[in-house]
Design a protein that fits this description.
By secondary structure, the protein is of the alpha+beta class. It is built from 5 helices and 10 strands, in the order H-H-H-E-E-E-E-E-E-H-E-E-E-E-H.
């Protein structure tokens, strides 16, 4: 299932890939490249260990050059993170984005150097080595990966190339914080009961 959503070049560990697949399936999201075709698309996933996940995707419209469609997916209710049950309804909404807004959104991805920045931070980076020897686990991972349970993930697909960038509770200056909030703002997704972007 992981290979259906993420190419080997994504650099995900089996566990990380399986968790992301589970999140995307729970939101009834398909692999990014399926709708993007030969165009350009970006998907932001906000994943918290104690809250329902949120997903916003920007698809550039090949049929109408310059314009785009923004889709958002949220789980409505009855989320149980311990049992990983998603028994509530799922809200899907598609928003048309005109040419000037699309140009501004894409410009921000270019300005943030999305296709060049490090794919991982110190908390999400896969271990350089991880194996078992004589019943003992040998790994280069450290306790930094236990920072907390909030992941900011951005996928990108452009001209047949795929990229995924992950951050764990990034600071305000991080490119993924800025890009994620930009898409959340464009989709008008706010924290429950608040008017504040994540």
């Amino acid at each position: 299932m992981v290979a259906n959503y993420f190419p080997p070049s994504a650099g995900l560990t089996p566990e990380n890939g399986a968790t992301l697949c589970e999140t995307l399936k729970s939101l009834e999201e398909r692999p990014l490249f399926e709708r993007a075709g030969k165009g350009e698309a970006y998907r932001f996933i906000w994943q918290h260990s104690k809250c329902p996940p949120v997903c916003v995707t920007l698809y550039c419209n090949q049929g109408n050059p310059g314009s785009a469609a923004l889709t958002k997916s949220q789980i409505d209710k009855d989320y149980d993170p311990k049992k990983r049950l998603y028994t509530g309804g799922i809200t899907h909404e598609e928003i048309a984005v005109d040419a000037s807004e699309t140009a501004e959104l894409i410009k921000n991805f270019d300005a943030a150097k999305f296709w060049q920045i490090d794919r991982f931070d110190e908390y999400t980076r896969p271990p350089l080595y991880d194996f078992e020897l004589f019943g003992r686990r040998i790994s280069s991972s450290n306790d930094a990966s236990l920072k907390d349970g909030v992941l900011w993930i951005m996928e990108g697909y452009k001209n047949g190339q795929y990229r995924i960038v992950q951050r764990q509770s990034p600071d305000e200056g991080d490119a993924i914080t800025k890009l994620g909030r930009m898409l959340l703002n464009q989709a008008k997704i706010y924290r429950r009961g608040e008017r504040e972007i994540y």
